[in-house]
């Protein structure tokens, strides 16, 4: 263990430094183009969500508060730089022209893309060391942008919409990576939460809940208002339904905090795809309701059956908070596009065009999930090679393995 | 108790579901009108205040952090939907035309209206179960909008100004409801706070303090700047005075955290009515000073004499944080309108018009308080009928009665 | 002690009240000029940073959470009013005309100026009583504005740029004041942190990190976009480097939380001077890297050698978080101005003008540091005169000396 740890000690900083050096050199080719297409407060909201909201959303583990918030900051600081560069590179290779006309838009898109990484991190929370997290960040950002490019170029998904696949990609990539990690011992006392850590997690959840309309609307200048209203109402119904179902699914009819955390956000995820084509708030509300139902029934039923069978350990319930609601949202979008097309079928479009429209949308969803699963699986294999795998299972979910604890009392 | 509890178990989710179903059906009649009169960041600030600020403002109870933040989210998610619908219904019945021209304005007005419910919740914090809270939310929102309509139609209060009665209505409605609830045993160990829970409450207070200028200014497009400056300075003086008076009123000359929490906000409440007619910041500052004096002297003197006599238990000190400062603000507004009118008396207006102006303002305040007290009293009676009254007094202020606690250590 | 304390009890509230009375009277001469040059959301971000971000940034001490957040609110509420008045007075004496054209700009400038006081507070955190803090606030704000005026009038620093000296002034003023305070006993158990208090401090740090681009850009209408991008990338690199160096400098290769707190912000401080003249993000990134290196090497090496020799106790590591990075930023700005001038030397400017430009910039930095040190030293002497020095060394870092603790369990 000592030698493994020394390995870790020597490798992490140098890896990060090399990465930073590469970033800085490559940033040499990026100038500033100052024509703000994105209002600064909207960018700020997204930035706040990523750094603060997700950081504290993940603090529910008893002894993992430092790592949850700290590593989240590290990943985002590294990942946003990588994402800007990867996107610029792809843009250079493919040669689109109108993509990259605003520096603030660039950072905003990078922040939104980073959601996929942060979601994946949630699945392996407490089991991956910083070295693995950083490697995963770089690899995942690259594959996410490639998957996006495929969607945009071959499946004709509009460019901004393609970013709404973050939840889908992040959740399934994370689950595939997680399947390669050793499982923690089932009665690990450290993997539980305390009332205080749950309250910190509630703090992060409320932040995410409040800023989700900004997240969904930030990249859509043409229907920003519609996106805001739909997301707001979907979130509201989703939060209410979370309380309802939490009472119905627990044994003695009490509320379960983790249900509230995950289900309250599911509505925002589900409405992400379709928000532009929803013309009435009640459709968004029904989507929010269904997303919440999926999130809670998923976490209470499926998690018990499915995860042990597939040997997946999903620390934050990412599959039910982000994965399934995103699938639901994609299918709902498909349905709405189909219905809208069918209504207008005689007037503007013919039936074969409608069919191809629906098929490309469906194809984009399937493509994203497949790429996420395959690349996630490979990434998981690589991350668990000898040189990267330094955290013994007994030190999972433990801040003290990564952080100095000069404190006298360590009762977190 | 078991059967009562089963009653609770079966009733809460179905009540909420029915409510949601009604909401969704009614929302069918509401479309989107997209002409943003309210800047999105301002709406976001108000939303943030309601969900996050008030949620954590109420976490000062030792073992009630989950319920404070969780039920606050539930109430707001339910209440905003109801409020939008009630306002649309009243608008439809009365037939005003220019009220409802922006969807974002609609949600913002609903959020601001919800302040009254959240304030009322503060009075009965820890004593009401979720069923009672949701019933109270629906009933209070309806009565608040009716009271507003009376003010607007018969007392000629400008429409936007009428929303500034939220604090007044919320505080007195809550106190009237509270008078019907059984009192907790006076030496209930659970109704106290810990340094940590007080710090969480400070977190919420600082949020409210920072965003109060947004709250006061969000609905006033014509004098937004003035509202912001006046509120900011009133809050600053109010916070400073809170420290001064806290030292002077405690036995050994120390600061009292609860004083800081309540008095720092009193200035923002007091300036809410008059902010449009204040032309110099020093007037706002004096208002902030007086509001803080009332809040602290109220909590240290009156609470000891008045509340036991009237048998009112006011968990958060709502009467002195929101009730009395709002009365002060209303009277100050009256005075300023009177003085301004008296100066211009010869030029624009005659003396009888001035008299009627002052009387209608006074009438609006009295009308709001009376409606709040009467409807609150009735609501309190209904909420304490057999089917709704499920929480035994010994389980007051206790998260574990409502929430699953899988945690090993429950020392909050 | 009893009599000293009575002295304290009687003096604090009256001092604050007198100050408030003076403020209110003087505010009589200030009207409102409503022409918003500063967007309200940007002001709100700065306000949020000051009240909430710095408040919680300073909560890392085990038993000093109430005082950290509470006194921070008190200082800002008092200081902003003083700052507005001092600036108005100086403006009146000197007679510039275009300075004061917007009320919101006035409050924003006052908030930004208050950063210097909040930074100084960080140095003597836990050792100064509220009386000393308020005196220091008033004195420091006056001297800071005088130093700014010297810079603007005699050294031709642009007016907005002169506000970026806040970090420099605050850090060295605080250190000079601190040198006059008695040192706490080295193994004071109370001056340490707990995991929970470190997490609260992380909460504040993340707030500061997220809002720093707003802070740096709020006063620069002509190159706001550039300031935002440069600050964002400097902060990102700075955060990443903090993790790298934290591992390299600790004994067993773990991360140290205090390093992350201070180094993550150093990048934003360093880029403050030069952000307008940086044309490529990679320059900002290198500045962020260097700032982080200075902050961490400073705290791990210099603090051990330098501070005991100079008998300075720096509770928050302000010297390395704000002081040295600000010096670095100033020198980098100098270099960039020099290089840019040298490139254009034949075309627009001659060599002697370039020399004088560089010398005035250098002069401004030296002037700020000297004024800060001298006035800080004198202020420290005055604050430790008999009537103000009421806190015994054994009661340092202890909330219970200042706050009522009705809580049964006081284990913070």
TrEMBL record, chains A, B, C:
<dbReference type="GO" id="GO:0005886">
    <property type="term" value="C:plasma membrane"/>
</dbReference>
<comment type="similarity">
    <text>Belongs to the ammonium transporter (TC 2.A.49) family. Rh subfamily.</text>
</comment>
<dbReference type="GO" id="GO:0097272">
    <property type="term" value="P:ammonium homeostasis"/>
</dbReference>
<feature type="transmembrane region" description="Helical">
    <location>
        <begin position="159"/>
        <end position="178"/>
    </location>
</feature>
<keyword id="KW-1133">Transmembrane helix</keyword>
<protein>
    <submittedName>
        <fullName>RH-like</fullName>
    </submittedName>
</protein>
<feature type="transmembrane region" description="Helical">
    <location>
        <begin position="133"/>
        <end position="153"/>
    </location>
</feature>
<dbReference type="GO" id="GO:0008519">
    <property type="term" value="F:ammonium channel activity"/>
</dbReference>
<dbReference type="Pfam" id="PF00909">
    <property type="entry name" value="Ammonium_transp"/>
</dbReference>
<feature type="transmembrane region" description="Helical">
    <location>
        <begin position="199"/>
        <end position="215"/>
    </location>
</feature>
<feature type="transmembrane region" description="Helical">
    <location>
        <begin position="12"/>
        <end position="32"/>
    </location>
</feature>
<feature type="transmembrane region" description="Helical">
    <location>
        <begin position="227"/>
        <end position="248"/>
    </location>
</feature>
<dbReference type="InterPro" id="IPR002229">
    <property type="entry name" value="RhesusRHD"/>
</dbReference>
<keyword id="KW-0472">Membrane</keyword>
<feature type="transmembrane region" description="Helical">
    <location>
        <begin position="322"/>
        <end position="342"/>
    </location>
</feature>
<feature type="transmembrane region" description="Helical">
    <location>
        <begin position="282"/>
        <end position="302"/>
    </location>
</feature>
<feature type="domain" description="Ammonium transporter AmtB-like">
    <location>
        <begin position="40"/>
        <end position="385"/>
    </location>
</feature>
<dbReference type="InterPro" id="IPR029020">
    <property type="entry name" value="Ammonium/urea_transptr"/>
</dbReference>
<feature type="transmembrane region" description="Helical">
    <location>
        <begin position="73"/>
        <end position="94"/>
    </location>
</feature>
<keyword id="KW-0812">Transmembrane</keyword>
<dbReference type="InterPro" id="IPR024041">
    <property type="entry name" value="NH4_transpt_AmtB-like_dom"/>
</dbReference>
<feature type="transmembrane region" description="Helical">
    <location>
        <begin position="38"/>
        <end position="61"/>
    </location>
</feature>
<feature type="transmembrane region" description="Helical">
    <location>
        <begin position="362"/>
        <end position="385"/>
    </location>
</feature>
């Amino acid at each position: 263990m000592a030698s493994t740890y020394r390995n870790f000690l020597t490798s992490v900083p140098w890896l990060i430094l090399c990465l930073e050096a590469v970033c800085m050199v490559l940033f040499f080719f990026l100038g500033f183009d100052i024509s703000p297409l994105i209002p600064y407060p909207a960018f700020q909201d997204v930035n706040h969500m990523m750094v603060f909201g997700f950081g504290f959303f993940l603090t529910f583990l008893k002894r993992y508060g430092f790592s949850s918030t700290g590593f989240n900051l590290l990943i985002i600081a590294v990942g946003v730089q990588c994402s800007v560069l990867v996107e610029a590179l792809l843009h250079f290779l493919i040669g689109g022209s109108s993509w990259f006309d605003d520096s603030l838009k660039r950072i905003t898109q990078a922040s939104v893309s980073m959601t996929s990484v942060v979601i994946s991190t949630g699945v392996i929370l407490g089991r991956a060391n910083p070295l693995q997290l950083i490697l995963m960040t770089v690899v995942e950002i690259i594959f996410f942008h490639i998957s996006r490019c495929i969607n945009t170029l071959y499946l004709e998904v509009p460019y901004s919409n393609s970013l709404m696949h973050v939840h889908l990609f992040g959740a399934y990539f994370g689950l595939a990576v997680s399947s390669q990690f050793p499982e923690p011992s089932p009665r690990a006392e450290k993997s539980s939460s305390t009332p205080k850590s749950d309250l910190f997690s509630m703090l992060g959840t409320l932040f995410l809940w409040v800023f989700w309309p900004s997240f969904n609307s930030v990249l859509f200048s043409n229907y920003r208002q519609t996106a805001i209203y739909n997301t707001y109402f979907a979130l509201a119904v989703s939060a209410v339904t979370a309380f309802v179902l939490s009472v119905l699914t627990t044994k003695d009819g009490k509320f379960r905090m983790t249900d509230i955390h995950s289900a309250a956000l599911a509505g925002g995820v589900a409405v992400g795809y379709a928000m532009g084509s929803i013309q009435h708030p009640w459709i968004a509300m029904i989507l929010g309701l269904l997303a919440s139902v999926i999130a809670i029934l998923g976490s209470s039923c499926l998690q018990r059956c499915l995860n042990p069978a597939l040997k997946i350990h999903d620390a934050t319930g990412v599959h039910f908070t982000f994965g399934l609601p995103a699938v639901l949202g994609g299918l709902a979008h498909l349905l709405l596009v189909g219905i809208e097309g069918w209504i207008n079928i005689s007037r503007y479009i013919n039936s074969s065009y409608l069919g191809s429209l629906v098929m490309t949308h469906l194809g984009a969803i399937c493509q994203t999930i497949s790429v996420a699963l395959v690349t996630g699986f490979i990434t998981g294999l690589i991350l668990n090679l000898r040189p990267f795998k330094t955290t013994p299972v007994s030190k999972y979910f433990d801040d003290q393995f990564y952080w100095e604890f000069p404190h006298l009392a360590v009762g977190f």
